[in-house]
Each structure stands twice: as C-alpha cells, then as structure tokens.
C-alpha cells in the first residue's frame, strides 16, 4: 500500500486542489497506476475536500479497463481475446497472475461479458457493479416477515432458479468448460425473463459461480474444460419480479473417486439435517451446531468464512450471518414468513480458505476438495418449505448419492 | 452466491508458529476530549511496543483509512494506507474493516496492538459488534476493549445537553459501552469551580457505568499497560468479571429518571438452568422485553449440574455464555449479573432470573 509522505519527490508535483507543492499520493491512483499529476495532494484536508470530484478518475479508469474489445487486443494473445480476471472483475490481464496455488487447479481466461436484453428488470448493480439499495436498506437490520404475495413471488422465482440449475446440470460432462455452463445458465435465466443476480454484483463478471474441486465457492466460469473425476458446484441466483432465489448443487463429472463421493454425500446430508430443524422458535445459531456435528462425525471440516443469509427483495439481507460452524453468536430465532438460505461448504481437509488473485475464488488452504449444497427456505407456521426444491422434472444426476429427497415438513 | 463474512488469517504453511491474535482497542469520545492527544502520545511514546493506529478520517465512503504505525524501538513513525475491500459481498464496510486489519497484521512483522480511533462516532456498539468475532474464526485480531476519552471540563455540559430530547447524547453511549474511561484534562478542573470536582465527575461516570475503570489524566499521558491488553471480551480471561464476585460495593446506581442510562446489578443464590437463562437473556436482548434497552451486560453464573463458573457477556444483541473455570473449594457460588442500559427494571429482572432456577 503506497503512502507517500516519507518519499521525497524527484520532481515537484502540485496539489490537485490548491496548487501548492504536493507530497501525498492518492492510494487508489497509485494502485490503478494512474498518472501522478492529478493524484497528488499537499495535505489530507485538500485530499478530503476534493475527493468527491477526484474519485471519478478511478471509476473512469476501472470501466475502461473492464470492457475489452477483441479487435483492440494484442493479436499475440492465444486466448481469442479472453483474459484473466483480477480485482473482483474490475480489471483483466493477458497473463496468469502469480500466486501460491494451494492445489492443482488454476484459473483460465474468461469470456466477454454476456449481454442482457433491455426489457429484463435488473437490480441496481447491473449498471455499475455497485449495489446501492442493498447496503443501505432497513432489511439489513431486521428480518422481514414476508406477506403472502411476496411469498408467492419467492416461490415463482425460486422455481425458475431451480429450473436454471437443472439446465446446467444436464450439460455437465467431461470436456465442457465452466464458461459453457455459464452460457447455459445465462440463456436459461434470460429466457425465463429473469436476471442472473451474480452478474456484475460487486463486479462479478459472470452469471453463476462454478466451483471445481478445491474451490470452496465463487469460482468464476472460465475456459477450463471439466475433467473426468472432477466435482463441480454450480451456484445460481435468479432475480425475477423483484425478488431473488438462490440455490447450488455439487455435481460429479464422469467417474469420481470414493473420497469425493463421500464428501459430496456428507455435504448434502449436512444441508438436509439442518433444514429438518427449521421451524418457528428455532435459533439461527442452531444451524451451525447441526452442520458441524454432522461434518465432524464424518471427519470432515466446515468452512467458516462464508455463511447463509436472508434473501428476498435483496440478494443478501438480514439475518445477515447464518454461520455453518458451531458456537457462533448468530442473533435471533426463526419466525414464520422469513426466507433465508442454508449453504454449508464442507472440506475434505482443513477448514481454512484462501482467496485467488481474482478477488472472488475461495479455495481450500490445503488444496483438498470442497463441496457445497444450498437451498432457499421459507419458515412456515409449523416447519419449513424448501422453495428451491427439486422438481419431478429435475435430472437425476446423483446416482451415487443415497438419500436425495425433497425435504418438506407439513 | 454465498454471503461472505470472511476474516480468518491466511497462513499457507503449517510451519508458521501460531501467534496470538492482535488486540484491537476502539477509542471513542467527543471531538476535543483528547483522542488525538492520546493517539499522538501512544505513537510518539518510547514504550517499545509496535502499535498501529487506524485513523477513521474519511468515513466509510472512501474505502481507505490512514494508518500510522509506531515501529517500536526508536519510535519511528510509519504511515500506511489500510484499504477496505470495495464493499464485502452484502456486508457493510465495517465488516471489511476486520479483513483489512487482518491483512495489516499479516503484512507487518510484529504488531503488538491496534488502536481504532473513531472520529465523531456517536455509538461504538456497531463497531464492537463487528470486532467481537466468534472464537471459532481464529481471527488474527480480537476486540480488546473500548476506551472512551472524556473531557473533564465539559463532561457535565455534555451529559446535560439534550436532557429533554428523546435520545441520549453521545456521551451516554460512549460511557455506557466503555471498558475504560480516560478522564482527561483534570488539570482544568479544580474543586473551587462552581460545579464538579473530579470525584463528582467520576461518580457521574459510574452512575452510568459502574463497571468501567476510570483513569485520570492530563494531556492523556496514561500508563499504556493500563489501557492495552484489557482482554475485556475474552471469555477465558475473566478476572475482571470475577471481581464481581468479591465486589462488596453496591454496583447498582440510583435511578435518577426512569429511563436514564444506569447500571443495575442483580444477584441470585440458587443455581440456574442454562437453557432457561439463554432464553431469558435472549428475550431481554433480542425482544426488548419490558421495553428495557440493554447496552452491555456482564455476569457470572452458577449453573445447575456443572462445576464450572460460567461467564455471560453481551454487547447489544450479541451475547455469549461460556464455561470459564472450575469453582474453587469454599467459593460462594452465586449468580451475579450487571446490566448497563436505559429503562432497566430491577424487580422484573430479579423475578425473571429467579424463574430460571430449578
């Protein structure tokens, strides 16, 4: 992180605000490698005072680097103009970034941004990558009890999300790239009239997350072909009629080893047993106790950095943190009419995670595999309704997972 | 897409020795009370400790905070930028603060402590909630204490202002949540002033929060060992809570107005059922039962079917009850709980706690 006050400038820069000799540099400009003129200030006060006009320099730089025109690309690039994702999607690079990779997997270049038809209703981040309504909403501070009409919308949107995930499931096979899976998800979503919520959410460059092997979550669809023996999680969220529906499943690619089968089976059971206790009066804290117990019994570990969350009009809202680990301080008890996700990530090795240079992909610290399953749930008067449950039309992609049942309480 | 609340440290190899988490102290107080003086004193002092001070100058919008780090011996000052992530996945910027602090700890060879100076932050509770992490996360940083710097000369005025408005002035929150109060500028207060003596001011502070320790100072020149490594939120380091057991002095403060912010201490001799106590404290903290507004809660519990002394700690809605140590032979096993907040109702609390005994 560049500071600047201890360096003596060889050439005197002038403060962008007042013109006096300047020795302090805006750290964002330094990071974005913007010209030093216009990024220098004489004091913190001048910096603060000019911030609201100065910061537009950053967003101009970011948006111009994120959109890549193939025609302008270096023709020596072997990837048809596809580039590696960096800084959460705010910039791209032709070179594989340097990193102490924890396992065998590597990022591959990503394709260009997929367009969304004009008539589709979009969340506010579709435009500039930055959610504005979500972080400032009152729904971050209290858990919404949804009205019947809102619940009906959730049912419809979650059903669409389920159908989109099923469409992705049907194309999983060795040789297909995660980018092609993303294309299927993208097309299926917009055909249904929905918006793929992950797209441009905090600059996320694709329409779903594809997490292979040691990737815990938030893998970015790219040019890598799935290989026989891989496991891959596809995480879909659809925005339709003003609400979001969120689910994910881990799939087998070809013939998968026994350890991976057990991992996937156990992870699914963790979700099942957690859903089984959901009803009014149960503490959100309890979810983590149950999942932790079940994973530990199988000698597997629970990822702690990512958690379940409230969902509805907002992609992520209160209850903001529903941890999957035990002895957590999650606040509140479940009430009828609340909707939230449970999405345990279970690891074959250690629980710790690391993040790739793209700023999104979370991988296991020891490079061993991780699996995940997720549902969006509605608390009913007597129990729970799994809004993203499998449909009769859902493909049977779990020949080896023993108890894949739709969990419903009456 | 999964909701991120990530904060654990990212050591790649298992060969790296486990370092204890670095304590984070939140410094709050009115502008002009002396926070900057305290910060400068800590940064320039020859105390041999490497301390990073995060100056919350720009607020949340800018995404960077300026950090000044005292490099310990030699006292050289290093300026750094701590960049907050560009908005966590759905989290507020405050949460990305924890990640940024952890990255800071990792970048530096050795940091002894972190101070978070909060310019103009009225209520330190949200910050405390973000920093009071679950032990399970094994984070590289841990909330050490909340320190409020109070201006002895102006305290009376700050407490009296807005007395008729429905919300309390900042000073009440800042004192209520404090683990340590630095009563600064004591040299400007003399006992022949019409008004408060130092003792009177200390009494006013203790009226609000009888658990906080008070350190008198001139120009914030305090002994650092009194304000660092308080471990006020560390369940395993419960010695200050255990002081509750020996406390003969009455911890409850007189209720000046029904709704005023004050401290209430209740006792119960009979052992309590842990599940009932959990439900009891949740109804108070989460459901605001009987309209009480609890800011902090600390206590020791004598639990049925257990030889362990349990400690209770709460900040706003976050709470934990943890077994801490075995009761010693001959020790008086008692439940003693202190509430700091507004509209506290003593009889209700005593009766409802009694209902938790079998």
TrEMBL record, chain A:
Q: Which residues form the C6H2-type domain?
A: 12-65
According to its UniProt entry, one GO biological process term is: proteolysis
Named cofactor requirement(s): Zn(2+); Co(2+); Mn(2+); Fe(2+)
PROSITE patterns registered for this protein in UniProt: ZF_C6H2 (PS52013)
Q: Name one GO molecular function term.
A: metalloaminopeptidase activity
Q: From what superkingdom does this record's organism come? A: Eukaryota
> Which reactions fall under this protein's catalytic activity?
Release of N-terminal amino acids, preferentially methionine, from peptides and arylamides
GO CC, sorted alphabetically, is: cytoplasm
In Pfam terms, one family for this protein is Peptidase_M24
Per its UniProt record, what Gene3D superfamilies does this chain match?
6.10.140.2220, Creatinase/methionine aminopeptidase superfamily
What's the EC number here?
3.4.11.18
The cofactor binding remark recorded in the entry reads: Binds 2 divalent metal cations per subunit. Has a high-affinity and a low affinity metal-binding site. The true nature of the physiological cofactor is under debate. The enzyme is active with zinc, cobalt, manganese or divalent iron ions. Has high activity with zinc; zinc cofactor is transferred into the active site region by the ZNG1 zinc chaperone.
The record's annotation in PANTHER family points to: METHIONINE AMINOPEPTIDASE (PTHR43330), METHIONINE AMINOPEPTIDASE 1 (PTHR43330:SF7)
- Function per UniProt: Cotranslationally removes the N-terminal methionine from nascent proteins. The N-terminal methionine is often cleaved when the second residue in the primary sequence is small and uncharged (Met-Ala-, Cys, Gly, Pro, Ser, Thr, or Val).
Q: Partners and quaternary state?
A: Associates with the 60S ribosomal subunit of the 80S translational complex.
Q: What is this protein called?
A: Methionine aminopeptidase
The organism named in the record is: Abeliophyllum distichum
UniProtKB/TrEMBL annotation, chain B:
* Gene3D superfamilies, A to Z: CobW-like, C-terminal domain, P-loop containing nucleotide triphosphate hydrolases
Keyword Nucleotide-binding (UniProt) = yes
- Reactions it catalyzes: GTP + H2O = GDP + phosphate + H(+)
Say which domain of life the source belongs to. Answer: Eukaryota
Q: Which UniProt keywords apply?
A: Chaperone, GTP-binding, Hydrolase, Nucleotide-binding, Zinc
> What GO molecular function annotations does the UniProt record carry, in alphabetical order?
GTP binding; hydrolase activity
All residue ranges annotated as the CobW C-terminal domain in the record = 261-357
UniProt-listed Pfam families: cobW, CobW_C
**Which CDD domains did the record assign?**
CobW-like
The record's comment on protein family reads: Belongs to the SIMIBI class G3E GTPase family. ZNG1 subfamily.
- From the Swiss-Prot or TrEMBL record, give the protein name: Cobalamin biosynthesis CobW-like protein
């Amino acid at each position: 992180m560049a500071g600047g006050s201890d360096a003596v400038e060889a050439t005197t820069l002038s403060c962008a605000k007042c013109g006096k000799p300047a020795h302090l540099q805006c750290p964002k400009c330094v990071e974005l490698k913007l010209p030093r003129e216009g990024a220098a200030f004489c004091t913190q006060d001048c910096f603060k005072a000019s911030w609201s006009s100065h910061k537009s320099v950053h967003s101009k730089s970011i948006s111009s680097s994120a959109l890549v025109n193939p025609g302008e690309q270096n023709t020596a690039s072997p990837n048809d103009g596809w580039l590696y994702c960096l800084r959460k999607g705010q910039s791209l690079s032709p070179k594989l970034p340097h990193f102490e990779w924890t396992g065998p997997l590597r990022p591959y270049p990503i394709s260009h941004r997929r367009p969304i038809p004009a008539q589709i209703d979009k969340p506010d981040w579709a435009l500039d990558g930055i959610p504005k309504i979500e972080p400032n909403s009152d729904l971050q501070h209290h858990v919404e009890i949804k009205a019947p009409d809102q619940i009906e919308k959730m049912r419809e949107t979650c059903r669409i999300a389920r159908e989109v995930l099923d469409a992705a499931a049907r194309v999983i096979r060795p040789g297909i790239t995660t980018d092609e899976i993303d294309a299927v998800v993208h097309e299926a979503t917009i055909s249904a009239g929905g918006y793929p919520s992950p797209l441009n959410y905090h600059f996320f460059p694709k329409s779903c997350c594809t997490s292979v092997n040691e990737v815990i979550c938030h893998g970015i669809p790219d040019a890598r072909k799935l290989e026989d023996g891989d496991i891959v999680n596809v995480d879909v969220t659809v925005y339709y009629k003003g609400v979001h529906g969120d689910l994910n499943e881990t799939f087998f690619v070809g013939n998968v080893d026994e350890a991976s089968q057990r991992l996937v089976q156990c992870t699914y059971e963790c979700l099942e047993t957690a859903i089984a206790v959901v009803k009014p009066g149960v503490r959100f804290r309890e979810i983590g106790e149950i999942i932790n117990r079940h994973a530990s019994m199988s000698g597997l570990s629970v990822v702690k950095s990512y958690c379940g969350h409230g969902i509805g009009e907002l992609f992520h809202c209160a209850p903001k943190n529903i941890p999957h680990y035990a002895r957590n301080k999650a606040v509140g008890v479940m009430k009828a009419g609340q909707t939230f996700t449970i999405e345990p990530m279970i690891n074959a090795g250690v629980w710790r995670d690391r993040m790739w240079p793209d700023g999104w992909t979370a991988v296991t610290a020891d490079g061993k595999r991780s699996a995940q399953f997720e549902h969006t749930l509605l608390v009913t008067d007597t129990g729970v309704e799994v809004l993203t449950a499998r449909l009769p039309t859902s493909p049977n992609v779990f020949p080896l997972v023993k108890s894949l049942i739709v969990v419903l309480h009456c | 897409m999964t909701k991120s609340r990530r904060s654990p440290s990212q050591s790649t190899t298992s060969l790296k020795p486990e370092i204890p988490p670095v304590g984070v102290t939140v410094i709050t107080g009115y502008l002009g009370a002396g926070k900057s003086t305290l910060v400068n004193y800590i940064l320039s002092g020859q105390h041999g400790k490497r301390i990073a001070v995060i100056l919350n100058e720009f607020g949340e919008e800018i995404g960077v905070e300026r950090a000044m780090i005292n490099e310990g011996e030699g006292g050289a000052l290093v300026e750094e930028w701590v960049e907050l992530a560009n908005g966590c996945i759905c989290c507020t910027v405050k949460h990305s603060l924890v990640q940024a602090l952890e990255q800071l700890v990792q970048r530096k060879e050795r940091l002894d402590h972190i101070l978070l100076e909060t310019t103009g932050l009225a209520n330190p509770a949200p910050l405390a909630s973000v920093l009071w992490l679950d032990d399970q996360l094994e984070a590289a940083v841990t909330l050490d204490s909340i320190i409020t710097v109070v201006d002895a000369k102006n305290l009376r005025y700050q407490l009296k202002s807005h007395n008729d408005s429905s919300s309390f002035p900042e000073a009440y929150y800042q004192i209520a949540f404090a683990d340590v109060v630095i009563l600064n500028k004591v040299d400007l207060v003399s006992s022949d002033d019409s008004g408060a003596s130092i003792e009177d001011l200390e009494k006013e502070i203790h009226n609000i929060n009888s658990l906080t320790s008070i350190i008198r100072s001139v120009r914030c020149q305090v002994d650092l060992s009194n304000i660092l490594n308080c471990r006020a939120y560390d369940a395993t380091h419960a010695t200050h809570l255990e002081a509750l057991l020996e406390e003969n002095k009455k911890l409850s403060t007189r209720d000046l107005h029904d709704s005023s912010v004050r401290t209430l201490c209740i006792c119960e001799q009979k052992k309590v059922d842990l599940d009932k106590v959990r439900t009891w404290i949740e109804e108070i903290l989460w459901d605001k039962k009987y309209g009480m507004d609890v800011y902090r809660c600390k206590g020791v519990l004598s639990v049925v079917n257990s030889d362990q002394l349990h400690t209770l700690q709460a900040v706003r809605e976050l709470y934990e009850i943890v077994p801490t140590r075995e009761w010693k032979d001959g020790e008086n096993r008692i439940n003693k709980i202190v509430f700091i907040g507004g509209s506290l109702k003593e009889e209700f609390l005593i009766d409802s706690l009694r209902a938790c005994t079998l």
